C-alpha cells in the first residue's frame, strides 16, 4: 500500500516532462514492472514513491532512456524512443550503470569523465583543482568539495552519491534521473541531498525515487507509482489464470 503524501505544488503552465502510458517490462522470470501510467511535470524535483527493488530500478532506467519499454508509450521532452530519450537525460546512482570502483581517487574519476566528454582528438590532462570545481561545484553547491587525492571508498555516503551525480551531469541535459534517495541512510545527509537536488531542479527536471515520500522540502511533485514492485505484480496476478 502506497503511503499518503503531502500536497505537492501544482503548476499547469507547461506540458509534462515525462508521460508514460501503460509502459511495462517483462524479464525471463516474469514481469519486472508495469503497466505504469505517470506524468512528471517539468522542472524541480519529482519523487516517485514506490517500493525499492529491480522493478523501480528498471523504471528509472526506462525514464532515462537506458532501457526501452516492451509495450506502452513513453515520451520525455517530446522524444519517444530510447536513443532520443538517452540524449536528453543523465542517470546517476544506479549500481547497474554507474558503480564506481572503490580504490580509485576523485582525481581519476574526474579525469576519466573529462576524457569521455572531450572530442577524440583532444588530449586531456589529469584533473586539477579547476576541473574539480567545474565538475563538482554545481552539484555540491555550498558543501565542501571532495579532495582530489581522496579515494572514493573513503568519502562519506553523501559525497559518494553527489560525486556520482556530478560525473553523470557534466553536460546538464534537460532530465536528471537519480537512482533513489534511500542510498543515503543519515536523515541529515538525506536532507542535504534533497536540497542539492532542489537547487539543480531550478535548471533541470529531476526525477528520483524513495519508499516513504519526502516531507519538509519544497519538491515539485510526489507521485505514487503502482505496479513497480515484483511482489505487487505477483499478488495482482493471482487467480488470473
UniProtKB/TrEMBL annotation:
One example of the protein's molecular function in GO is: ATP binding
- Indicate the segments forming the ABC transporter domain, all copies: 35-176
This chain's protein is named ABC transporter domain-containing protein
Which species? Mycolicibacterium aichiense
Amino acid at each position: 500500500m502506497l503511503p499518503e503524501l503531502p500536497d505537492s505544488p501544482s503548476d499547469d503552465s507547461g506540458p509534462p516532462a515525462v508521460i508514460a502510458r501503460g509502459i511495462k517490462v517483462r524479464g525471463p522470470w516474469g514481469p519486472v514492472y508495469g503497466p505504469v501510467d505517470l506524468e512528471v511535470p517539468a522542472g524541480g524535483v519529482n519523487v516517485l514513491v514506490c517500493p525499492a527493488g529491480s522493478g523501480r530500478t528498471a523504471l528509472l532506467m526506462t525514464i532515462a532512456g537506458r532501457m526501452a519499454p516492451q509495450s506502452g508509450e513513453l515520451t520525455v521532452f517530446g522524444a519517444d524512443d530510447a536513443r532520443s530519450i538517452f540524449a536528453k537525460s543523465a542517470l546517476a546512482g544506479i549500481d547497474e550503470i554507474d558503480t564506481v570502483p572503490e580504490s580509485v581517487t576523485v582525481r581519476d574519476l574526474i579525469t576519466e569523465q573529462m576524457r569521455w566528454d572531450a572530442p577524440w582528438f583532444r588530449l586531456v590532462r589529469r584533473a586539477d583543482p579547476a576541473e574539480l570545481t567545474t565538475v563538482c561545484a554545481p552539484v555540491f553547491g555550498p558543501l565542501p568539495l571532495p579532495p582530489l587525492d581522496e579515494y572514493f571508498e573513503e568519502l562519506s555516503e553523501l559525497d559518494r552519491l553527489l560525486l556520482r551525480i556530478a560525473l553523470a551531469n557534466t553536460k546538464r541535459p534537460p532530465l536528471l534521473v537519480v537512482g533513489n534517495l534511500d542510498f543515503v541512510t543519515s536523515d541529515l545527509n538525506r536532507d542535504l541531498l534533497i536540497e542539492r537536488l532542489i537547487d539543480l531542479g531550478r535548471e533541470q527536471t529531476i526525477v528520483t525515487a524513495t519508499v516513504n515520500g519526502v516531507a519538509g522540502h519544497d519538491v515539485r511533485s510526489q507521485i505514487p507509482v503502482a505496479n513497480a514492485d515484483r511482489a505487487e505484480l505477483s499478488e495482482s496476478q493471482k487467480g488470473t489464470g
